Structure formats: C-alpha cells, structure tokens
Amino acid sequence: MSEIVLLFLLSPAILALFLLWNSTKKKRKPPLKIPPGNMGWPLIGETIPYLKPHFATSMGEFMEQHISRFGKIYSSNLFGEPTIVSADPELNRFILQNEGGLFECSYPRNVRRILGEWSMLVVVGDLHREMRMIALNFMSHARIRRHLLREVERHTLLVLSSWEDNSTFSAQEEAKKFTFNLMAKYIMNMDPSKAETKQLKREYITFMKGMISAPLNFPGTAYRKALKSRSCILRFIEQKMEERRSGTSDECQKVEEDDLLGWVSKQPNLSTEQILDLILSLLFAGHETSSVAIAFVIYFLESCPKAVQQLQEEHLEIARIKKQAGECELSWKDYKQMEFTQCVINETLRLANIVRFVHRRAIRDVHFKGYDIPCGWKVLPVFAAVHLDPSLFHNPQEFNPWRWQTGSSNVTMTSNFMPFAGGPRLCAGFEFAKLEIAVFVHHLVLNYRWELAEPDHAIAFPFVHFTKGLPIRVHTLTKHK
Ligand code: HEM
Fold first, then answer.
1. Is 24 exposed, middle or buried (0-12, 13-18, 19+ CB in 10 A)?
2. Most trustworthy range by pLDDT among 47-61, 227-241, 299-313, 411-425
3. What confidence tens digit (pLDDT) does each residue in 143-177 have?
4. What confidence score (pLDDT) does residue 240 get?
5. Pocket flag, ligand 1, residue 425 (CB < 6 Å)
C-alpha cells in the first residue's frame, strides 16, 4: 500500500523529468561533423611525425599519407591541441580572410616567449592593426622606391664583390649575411663592418636556435640560451633608442626618419616594450625568410641553365639601357622590367615553401564544406601542400619558371599561390622581399656563373635550410659590354 502512495506522490516528478529530458533531446544539437583524422598519442598527439624533417621541396610523408587517407581537410592533435589541418586552398583562403572574425593568429607558447608577447606575429586585434600600419607605412611603395631600393643594391654589391673567382663558400651563409646586414641597416642604421653589428649577429644566431628547439628552460639548453640572447638583443636595441633620445648618437640627426627605430620611436601609442618586440619581430620576419629564398634561387638556377640564360638576357638588356643613359644605380623602372625574374621568384617561392604553414585558432564554431571546426581548436592552413598539389600545379616537383609567364599562368594557379599568406596578415614585407631577390639576381647573373661544390638539399625542420649550407664554387664572368 505504502509503495502505491509513494508512486502516486512521485509520479508528477517523474513526468516532469520525462518532459524535461524529452525537450532537451529535441533541442540537443546534432553531433559535430569533425573532419576525419587521427588524434595520435595522448598529449603529444601526432606532433612528432608532423614535424619530422623532410625534403623542403616535398610536402612530407605525414601530409601525403594523411591527405590520401582522410582528404585535404583532416583532424589531428598537434602542438598539444586538437587541430584541423588544411591542404585545401579554399579553406586556407577562408581562414586567412576571416582573421579576427572567425579565426585568430595563435603561435605556440615557446615561439611567443622567444619573439615576445608584443611581437607583430603574436598580437591580435587593434594592437595588431596599429603595429601593422606602422610597418606598412615604413615599407610603403614610396619609401621602397626612394630609400630601400638604393640600400638593397648597395648591400647586394657589398656581398657579391667579396666573392673571388674560383672560390668556394656557403651560399646560404652569404645570403644570410646579405639580408642580416640589410635588415640591421634598415632597422637601426647599423654598419655591417662595425663590431657591434657582428656581435648582434652572434646573439641573433643563438636566439634563432631557440626558436627551433624544445621549450625546456633549464641551464645549458638552447631554449634558455635563446631567451638570454633575446634579452641581450632587446638591451642593445633599447640602448640605441636611448642614444637617439639623448642625442648622444653621432648619426642621430641624419637617420631620424630613415630607419625603423627612428620611425617607431615617434609613435605615441607604443610603449618601449612594444617597440622592442616590434623591432625584433621585423628583424626575424625580414631576415630568415628572404635569405632562404635567395639560397633557393641559387640552388634551383644551378640545375636550370635555360633559366639562367634567359635571366642573363633580361638583365643584360637592362644594364645596356642604363649604360646608354649614363645611369649606374638601378631604378624602379629597371625593376619593373624584370619580368622573367619575377617568374623565377614565384617559382622559387612555390617550390621552396619557406613559410610552410601558419598557426591559427577558431574563435567561433565554424562550418565549412560540410565539416565543423569547433571554437577553440587549432587550425593550420598548410600552403606547402597546396603549392605541391598536382591537381593545381602541373608537374609540381619541377622547377619551371615559365609556368608563371603571362598567357601560361592561369587564374586558379595564381589564386592558389600563397607564399606570403593573405588577408589582414598578408606579409607586410612581401614587396620588399621580392625587390631584394630581384636585385640580388640582377647582379648575380651579370657577374657570376656557379656550380654546387658538393651535392646538397634543403630540409624543413621546421624552418627550411640547406643541410650543408649550400656550398657553391663561383666563376667571375667577363664584364658585360
Ligand atoms: C621570401 C620572403 C618572405 C616570405 C616567404 C614571407 C612570408 C610571410 C608569411 C607567410 C607571413 C604570415 C604569417 C602569419 O600569417 O602568421 C608573413 C608575415 C610577416 N612578414 Fe613576411 N615573408 C617574407 C619576407 C619578409 C620581409 C623581407 C619582411 C620585412 C622586412 C617581412 C615582414 C613580415 C611581417 C612584419 C609580417 C607580419 C604581418 C602581420 O602580422 O600583419 N616579411 N611573412
């Protein structure tokens, strides 16, 4: 009898629970359709096979296997987080163009600590926009034409004139010397021959080693040394700023407007810490990338004599016209004549994939091509996988600059080509980078012939570099008439 009373008393509660369950069941969202994939091991996921060194001109075994198994959009666990990897050009464009709205730049913690919390590659939102404007204004078209072109040519000649006939050296080191000295001059008006520039370069090399090392902050580790070098470099930049402010620098009046330090120091909204990280990130972004691109141009051209010959014809013609006009420095007009050179640059960037992918995070739930990307997940648009996709680039492993010639290059090819990323974070120095490479090529093909002194190849680990430093032997050409 008591059970019946109890049931009678509880029945409204049971009914209410049933109705609640039924209504939540109706409202419950359908299960998310995460792209297929493999989450790998707990914590480390698939990070180790993803980063495994591979030939820079390939997309790597990991990417190839995952794409053939799961398709161009797949899920994984990378850098300790659930991740969507994209080798799909449309998704890559969508991610880059929706920066700030659906996705946000999100580099791993060790990169953030080394580059700094205020680095342009790390900050988001309004501060990013403000810093980007400063960098873009400094590298404006007008400034590139007026100041930077001259500096680029001067530094090219400085490096190339040190190459003796029949000598052998590391082309990668020479390219690094060129871009480092140029950036040091451009950022802080530093002279390459001075001891302080050489000291800064030594610190910078240690700093870079930390970027590619495990983030283990113990005495003796590359990471700890890199953090120390970071502090040294920042102290150095700060000292330069102080000298400018107090007027103790002998060149302070003259360079006020000409270098980045003078330029950013006048920005009222930036703190000293922000200025220091901004300068350091520009040194990093501008030096590492262009030097590798130049080393690759030297590497690819060495095995493509037809392209060297066509380049020589293009540059001899420019040199001939200049001579007739009695001009000696390259002008913007000359640069614009370097059409085949631009094809060589594009093809080098496509095949070398210097920046292979970028780090992003979904800041909202995103639905794309039938898949769900949950808010908070890491997202990696992999440009290398698109640039080496045979359905988008015919015979993608082949170095073929002619594919970029007007008439032969098609819209699909150019819209899938993203060596400088895109959207609101498109590389701020892309014009400058192309100019550096073109001017270097101009003087290179007019003055030298070269061959590999021993076989070498480039690997991606995770930054792209030549394993032996790209040793070349150069031969001076008799002066062009
Ligand atoms: C071949 C050479 C270069 C390549 C392949 C390259 C590539 C890239 C890529 C892919 C990004 C986007 C990073 C991201 O979205 O997370 C980027 C950003 C950037 N690059 Fe470059 N870059 C090159 C040269 C340069 C040079 C010479 C400079 C400066 C002198 C420079 C300055 C920057 C800056 C400041 C950013 C950050 C832009 C922003 O966040 O708004 N880069 N670069």
1. exposed
2. 299-313
3. 888 888 999 999 999 999 999 999 999 999 999 99
4. 86
5. yes
**Beta carbon of 293 within 6 Å of any ligand 1 atom:** yes
DSSP symbols for 7-72: HHHHHHHHHHHHHHHHHHHHHSPPPP-PPPEE--BTTTBTHHHHH--EETTS--HHHHHHHHHH-S
pLDDT in tens, 78-110: 988 999 999 999 999 999 999 999 999 998 888
> Best of 148, 387, 427 to mutate for ligand 1, by most ligand atoms within 8 A of CB?
427
Helix (H) or strand (E) holding 372: strand 371-373
34 close to ligand 1 (CB < 6 Angstrom): no
Within 13 Å of residue 239, how many CA atoms lie on the same side as its CB? 8
Ligand 1 centroid–CA 355 distance in Å is: 9
Q: What is the amino acid identity at position 342?
A: Q
- Residue 358 in contact with ligand 1 by CB distance below 6 A: yes
The secondary structure of 189-253 as a DSSP string is: ---TTSHHHHHHHHHHHHHHHHHTS----STT-HHHHHHHHHHHHHHHHHHHHHHHHHT-STTHH
What span, in angstroms and rounded, lies between the C-alpha atoms of 411 and 404?
A: 11
Q: Taking Cα atoms as reference points, which of 308, 362, 372 lies closest to residue 340?
A: 308
Place of tokens 């120390």: 228
Whose alpha carbon is nearest atom 41 of ligand 1? 425
The whole-chain average pLDDT of the chain stands at 88
* CA dist., res. 367 & res. 34, Å (int): 10
The tens digit of pLDDT for each residue in 325-342 reads: 898 899 999 999 999 999
